[in-house]
Design a protein that fits this description.
- This protein is mainly alpha-helical.
- It has 4 helices and 3 strands.
- The chain has a 3-stranded mixed sheet, sandwiched between helices.
- Helix 1 crosses helix 2.
- It starts with 7 loop residues before the first strand and ends with a strand.
- 12% of the residues are buried.
- The C terminus is likely disordered.
């Protein structure tokens, strides 16, 4: 319950390595992902993201998901923008300038059900 009201950033890092690895080791080898029916890296990551997000218990919690390759400068900049967005929205909500419902509606994130 510690993170129930906290925005989260889900980093799916090293996408370049994941693309190669998933060719020889399907994600269904992980017990939590055994129901996956897609194929390839893109479908696999979408499924992992969906499993994470549907595990959250608070429907108003924001989850910002980033598929990254840490050496890609554009990815790093995107992550910093997401963190700034989280901090600004949280500050505005605490100051009464934005209600939690508005935060979710204005956000590019998806509701989360994990915490």
């Amino acid at each position: 319950h510690w993170f129930a009201d906290t925005a989260m950033i889900l980093f799916l890092n090293k996408y370049d390595i994941f693309q190669e690895k998933v060719k020889t080791a399907p994600i269904t080898e992980c017990p939590s992902l055994r129901n996956f029916k897609g194929e390839g890296a893109e479908d696999s990551l979408a499924y992992i993201q969906m499993v994470f997000e549907t595990s959250c218990q608070n429907p108003l919690q924001s989850v910002y998901t980033h598929i990254t390759t840490a050496t890609d400068k554009r990815n790093v900049e995107s992550i910093f923008e997401a963190v700034q967005d989280i901090v600004i929205r949280k500050s505005m909500a605490e100051a009464g300038l934005l209600v939690p419902h508005d935060m979710q509606m204005m956000s590019n994130s998806r509701p989360c059900r994990i915490c």
